[in-house]
Write a structure and sequence with these properties.
The protein is of the alpha+beta class. It has 12 helices and 10 strands. The two termini are 35 Å apart. Bound molecules: flavin-adenine dinucleotide.
């Protein structure tokens, strides 16, 4: 199914496809074998403007909307999940939060490095006892001597071990809590009392690492506060909305490549004297994946367009994230089945992608959390 995009987005997508083919796809194997990102990758993305598409022009960005940015994630994710993750800036869209809510000093300190790919960041919300229910968080920041003292522990923080600074969400008013008692802080690596205590690898590609971080009487100045005191939970929610749309597009990109690989394999693999592509059982799997992807694109592109027009899209980002993360799981499962043994052998993209897509039903709010939000809205309407 062909989704017509405005001419400028079509041209942008063509340029992105060329970049992915020439620069990213050749790195896939090396990244998987080493479990590390090539040091020049972020600066290369920065040079092409891919780390600053959404940032306002006043701070050196391209001032684009969410739609072009999400299309970029779709194209990057066609290659390897990690490319979309790094391009979204710490998984939590920290650069855009700094551009929108940061002080002049913070914008000057961090944005140039984030734009040119010399600084890495991470976004720390989840805690051992506060995952789906992040309102149960216990990490707190107390005012002291004109600054703040942070204590607590966060875990599953994507790329926190590599980050030059981290956005931390902490309780600053134990009575108000998530109703105006949560604040965001930017904490630099090397700040005394801030430590990476564990790095977890996951069932996905070895390059995707989640870290546990600890704040032990970690003192930061008031100038480390991101946005007004008490607004940290709103800032996190704003970031999650855009993050869910980004995840949705990443799922579409991965599903599209899995379907293309499945169709190509089905045309060349001969069993019982005929290509797999001539068997109805295989054709139905290809057809189901095509329908899945088309439905995903329809809901995601329409929601992105409405967001960029400034409309209130309600629970649409949850609907998109839920549908797309489950859709890509189905497409990946069919891709493995169509590839047979090749689909489960390590070193072949289908096997890696099958494992990587499993993350999507948990990160940025699990499927159950999205269903809770959607159902709450449905019940409110009657
Ligand atoms: C790849 C990846 C990257 C991540 N990166 C980050 C990051 O950069 N920063 C960050 O802060 N966090 C990050 N996370 C953490 C992620 O946000 C949490 O894992 C997620 O919110 C779920 O929390 P949990 O793991 O504690 O699961 P739990 O909250 O313990 O939930 C366990 C299971 O129970 C279900 N469940 C929970 N409550 C209910 C309920 N009321 N009804 C029905 N079912 C329920 C959940 O859906 C889940 O299936 C990342 C996670 C992944 C997988």
């Amino acid at each position: 199914m062909n989704f017509e995009l405005p001419p400028e987005l079509t041209a942008m997508r063509e340029a992105l496809r060329k970049f992915v083919k020439a620069e990213l796809e050749p790195l896939e194997d090396q990244i998987d074998r080493s479990g590390e990102l090539p040091p020049g990758l972020l600066p290369l993305m920065g040079k092409h403007g891919y780390l600053s598409m959404r940032l306002p022009t006043e701070v050196g960005g391209a001032g684009m909307g969410l739609f072009p940015y999400a299309l970029m994630l779709e194209e990057f994710s066609r290659s390897h999940r990690i490319f979309g993750l790094v391009a979204s800036g710490g998984g939590g869209l920290t650069p855009i939060a700094i551009a929108r809510h940061g002080s002049r000093e913070q914008r000057e300190k961090y944005l140039t490095g984030l734009i040119n790919g010399t600084l890495r960041t991470a976004f720390a919300l989840t805690e051992p006892a506060a995952g789906s229910d992040n309102s149960a968080m216990t990490t707190r920041a107390e005012k002291k001597d004109g600054g703040w003292v942070i204590n607590g522990r966060k875990h599953y923080i994507n790329s926190a071990h590599d980050a030059d600074f981290i956005t931390v969400i902490a309780i600053t008013d134990a009575v108000k809590r998530t109703r105006g008692g949560v604040t965001a802080f930017l904490v630099d690596k090397g700040t005394p009392g801030f430590n990476v205590t564990r790095v977890d690898t996951t069932m996905g590609s070895a390059v995707i690492k989640l870290a546990e971080i600890e704040f032990d009487n970690c003192k930061v100045p008031d100038s480390a506060r991101l946005g007004p005191e008490g607004q940290g939970f709103n800032l996190a929610k704003e970031s999650l909305r855009d993050g869910r749309m980004g995840v949705s597009c990443s799922c579409i990109g991965m599903a599209d490549r899995l379907l293309a690989m499945s169709a190509a394999h089905a045309k060349t693999r001969i069993t019982f004297g005929k290509p797999l592509a001539e068997r109805q059982a295989i054709q139905w799997m290809l057809a189901d994946s095509e329908v899945d992807i088309a439905a995903a694109r329809a809901m995601v592109y329409d929601t992105l367009r409405q967001i960029d027009e400034g409309k209130d899209v309600g629970t649409a980002p949850s609907i998109c994230k839920l549908y797309c993360s489950e859709m890509v799981g189905r497409v990946a499962d069919r891709a493995v089945q169509i590839h047979g043994g090749m689909g489960i052998v390590q070193g072949y993209p289908v096997e890696r992608m099958y494992r990587d897509v499993r993350h999507y039903r948990i990160g940025e709010g699990s499927s159950e959390v999205q269903r809770m939000l959607i159902a709450k809205d449905v019940l409110k309407r009657v």
